[in-house]
């Protein structure tokens, strides 16, 4: 299996292949990461890996500790993730390709990246100014009956959208048809559903597309039944994820 070493960007959310990730980068460890990525040749991809945090905080504490107000906050690339950072993260993440890295006048960065390939986290190195990780690329296997399952997921997802939106027509892409390629369907639906991080993580690390679609079909039916019994549930915006304030 192919392995690669990349900068590591932990988040309190899950990134899926094909999904857009906006980032507002202000912590020094991640600013250092972006400065390093900007040194990448223009014709080469500016890649980093995103992993969901299992135990820890996306933003390191910057105020004196509690209950001792004189305690100094932890600093460094692994701040907030304990003595063994690899244990603080979920074991499967996603490579992100930064299409835009814009430095502001105050030294912070505005970043727009897209998820590309799933990776397994093998090790984490905290010896530099930012975390890096050794990663193993994970192939996306179709599994059995992926095409038929994708069509079933799309039908259930349309009903789920209508219930969330109060029976108004909404889609993943405004004015566009939903995709029909099974793996793309599986990732877009996983990203768009209103689920907690452990459930989204489970979908990301499914062994193949068919397994992910089967799981999504069960979740869509279950969530739609819950929404049907709670008609006043507010409808979130299904087409956008929040910008991450790292």
Automatic annotation (TrEMBL):
Domain Lon N-terminal as annotated: residue spans: 6-224
SMART domains assigned to the protein according to its UniProt record, in alphabetical order: LON (SM00464)
Top-rank taxon, per record: Bacteria
Region (Disordered): 58-80
Classification via PANTHER family: ATP-DEPENDENT PROTEASE LA (LON) DOMAIN PROTEIN
Protein name per its UniProtKB record: Lon N-terminal domain-containing protein
Taxonomic lineage from the root: Bacteria, Bacillati, Actinomycetota, Actinomycetes, Kitasatosporales
């Amino acid at each position: 299996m192919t392995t690669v070493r990349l900068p590591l960007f932990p988040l309190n959310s899950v990134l899926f292949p094909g999904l857009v990730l906006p980032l507002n980068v202000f912590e020094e460890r991640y600013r250092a990461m972006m400065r390093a990525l900007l040194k990448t040749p223009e014709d080469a991809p500016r890649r980093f890996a995103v992993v969901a945090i299992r135990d820890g905080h996306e933003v390191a504490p910057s105020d004196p500790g509690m209950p001792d107000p004189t305690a100094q906050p932890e600093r460094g690339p692994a701040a907030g993730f304990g003595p063994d950072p690899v244990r603080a993260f979920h074991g499967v993440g996603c490579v992100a390709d930064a299409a835009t890295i814009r430095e502001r006048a105050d030294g912070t960065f505005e970043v727009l990246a897209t998820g590309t390939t799933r990776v397994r986290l093998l090790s984490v190195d905290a010896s530099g100014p930012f975390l890096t990780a050794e990663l193993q690329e994970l192939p996306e296997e179709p599994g059995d009956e992926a095409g038929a399952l994708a069509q079933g997921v799309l039908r259930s997802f349309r009903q789920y959208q209508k219930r969330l939106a109060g029976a108004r027509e909404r889609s993943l892409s405004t004015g566009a048809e939903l995709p029909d390629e099974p793996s793309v369907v599986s990732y877009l639906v996983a990203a768009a559903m209103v689920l907690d991080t452990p459930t989204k993580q489970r979908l990301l690390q499914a062994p193949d597309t068919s397994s992910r679609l089967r799981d999504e079909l069960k979740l869509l039916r279950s969530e739609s039944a819950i929404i049907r019994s709670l008609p006043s549930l507010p409808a979130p915006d299904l087409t956008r994820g929040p910008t991450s304030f790292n």
